[in-house]
Amino acid sequence: MCTDAEVQTLIAAALEGKLADETGWRMNGRTWWLWCFATERQCCLVHLLRELQKVDEHNTSAEWHAFAKMLRRLVRDGIRLRKRPDFSPQR
Prior knowledge:
This protein has about 90 residues and is of the alpha+beta class. The chain is built from three helices and two strands; from the N terminus they run αββαα. It folds into two domains: about 1-40, no CATH class; about 45-90, no CATH class.
């Protein structure tokens, strides 16, 4: 459980970050929502893939494309792993 001071620190950080995202999922017939507030250095994996695409439009160097290809593979592997029914963060 967070203290009041910790909660206020989190609220201030979320307001400064100006980035929010929500993810919904169904559980027992009901939709539940998780809100995430992040700084500019943090984002969900799907948003990271979108940002890679934007950079691709402006950076045509071979080094960038090699790096982006490896990063995309890593991110997509992570997404696939998380979706596996036997996934457990403890493993």
